[in-house]
Amino acid sequence: MYYLYTHNDLDGLGCGILAKCAFGDKVEIRYNSIAGLNTQVERFLERAKKKKHLFITDLAVNEANEQRIEDFVKSGGKVKLIDHHKSSLHLNRHPWALVEVAYDDGRLASATSLFYDYLLKGRLLKPSPAIEEFVELVRLYDTWEWDEAGNLEAKRLSDLFSMLSLEEFEERMLERLMTGEPFAFSPLELEMLGVEEERIGRYVRRKKREIVQTFVGGHCVGVVHAESYHSELGNELGKEYPHLDYIAIMNMGGKKASFRTIHDDVDVSAVAGQYGGGGHAKAAGCPMTEEVYRHFVAEPFTKEPLRMDAFRNEYNVKDSTYGTLYENGKEQQMFIFASGDDWIVDVEGDELNRTFPAFEEAERYVKRQYGAWLVRDEVYIAYLMEHMSHRKSQALVLM
Ligand SMILES: [Mn+2]
């Protein structure tokens, strides 16, 4: 008998589906949350007989279970832990662990793709084009490579997963993969997916107006409260507000926090690690401890939300040598303008002591330090009229 303890997300479920394809009725699968795994593993090892074969996928065990597995393996038990989280790499010191974040060719790994390779190598599963396609879609989604590759099928697979119960999704996928036909969605599923895409779009647009900017541990953070669509939110909010180092998504009901970044030079697994969590460089999470509550919920609570940059402007546009006007929730106005090769920032009539070599840097500074956004043309024109006499701005010449 085989046992699989895996994560309850799409990647973890992908492992479950592969195990069913490989072992059929001879595998018992438990889908776990990150927090639930260790209790399950401990209980399993307490009553485990040597004949049992345990797989753990897409999750890491704690130190106590690491030791228990070591003892179990030494006494003849069979365990294989397969994961792709950066925070699990230390487990590679054991021969029973296989943790790989990326392949040699640079593609990021997922638990499902690693488990698939493992099953093929051990001749426990026969390769099939449908299974291969399914594994690749899960990998693309879980590593977020689908976004860059523009692979909407991967996103749809994840949307379908979130719309169905775990059991129903598992059953539907198994049916599909066993037929040997190419992997495809049914017409009804495609219709459901269209509705879901619109729903997500509306949800994300609403959250763009609720996000609050704050500083935590030297990072400029956007905080938003949300129970669903964390990956979409992390991605869309990150792109809308690129001056933010990362997006912190608070789930009060679930007592969890998620961290997402679109920036290569920010590692949110390190942020989550400080609060007892873990994950990937660009997507990580942790439990909602009192400290997390204080930093991300209580302290920024009274702040005004950020606003999106005005997007239909003709005059108040970025990178304009005539000047660009920003405003924040405290009604402070920041004016960025060029002077020779430098960009200067004027805050409420006072020029800052420092200058910036590029507009983007001046804007980033204004957005991070003042939580500001680009104002609409009307506000810009009114500002110029008021300040024209002392600034002698050339901007009005344009109008
Ligand atoms: Mn995963």
Structural account:
The protein has 399 residues and is an alpha/beta fold. It has 3 domains: 2-185, inorganic pyrophosphatase (n-terminal core) (Alpha-Beta Complex); 208-298, Diaminopimelate Epimerase, Chain A, domain 1 (Roll), CATH 3.10.310; 324-398. Helix content is 42%, strand content 21%. The protein has 14 helices and 16 strands. The chain has helices at 10-23, 37-47, 63-74, 111-121, 129-142, 145-149, 152-163, 166-179, 187-208, 230-240, 268-274, 290-298, 359-370, 377-391, and strands at residues 2-7, 27-32, 53-57, 78-83, 97-99, 212-216, 219-225, 246-251, 256-260, 278-279, 283-287, 324-327, 333-339, 342-347, 350-356, 373-374. The strands form 3 sheets. Strands 6-7-8-9-11-10 form a 6-stranded mixed sheet. β12 and β13 (333-339) form a beta hairpin. The longest helix has 22 residues, at 187-208. It is elongated and about 85 Å long. The structure holds manganese (II) ion (MN). Manganese (II) ion (MN) binds at residues 11, 58, 84, 110-111, 142.
User: What is the overall silhouette?
Assistant: elongated
What composes the largest sheet? 6 strands, mixed
CATH topology of the largest domain: inorganic pyrophosphatase (n-terminal core)
Strand order, sheet with most strands:
6-7-8-9-11-10
Number of domains: 3
Distance between the termini: 78 Å
Number of helices: 14
Bound molecules: manganese (II) ion
Oligomer: single chain
Helical/strand content category? alpha/beta
Q: Write the CATH architecture name of the largest domain.
A: Alpha-Beta Complex
Instruction: Give the strand tally.
Output: 16
Which runs of at least 5 residues are low in confidence (pLDDT < 50)? none
Q: How much helix is in the residues?
A: 40-55%
SSE string, helices as H and strands as E: EHEHEHEEHHHHHHEEHEEHEEHEEEEHEH
CATH class term of the largest domain? Alpha Beta
- What is the residue-mean pLDDT, rounded to a whole number? 93
What Rg is obtained from the alpha carbons, in whole angstroms? Answer: 25 Å
**Percent of residues in β-strands:** 15-25%
